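JOB MANIFEST
job_type = single_chain_structure
chain_count = 1
residues = 93
[input]
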Amino acid sequence: MRRTAVVLGLLGLAACGPVTPERAAERCEERARAAQAPDVGITLGASSNGGPFAGASIGLSADYLRGRDPIEVYETCVINMTGQPPIRPPRLR
């Protein structure tokens, strides 16, 4: 049992290996975009079985609610993930 726990722990650590600067930029851009504005989604449709349907969703990030600057969110995120400043400016909407 103990051996299994050790193996699983080592596999977990291997999955948390270093993040490439490009991958960090992509992940942090997503976070910075979420800091810009709420994410709103609307779904409308119809099916042959159930007739018309509709749905809506709103996503709010903690960074957006705090009023953080998206560029600051991006830069801080990249530094936290890689230990280095960003390799490129963020590509935001």
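[summary]
DSSP finds four helices and two strands in the chain.
The mean pLDDT is 86.
exit_status = 0
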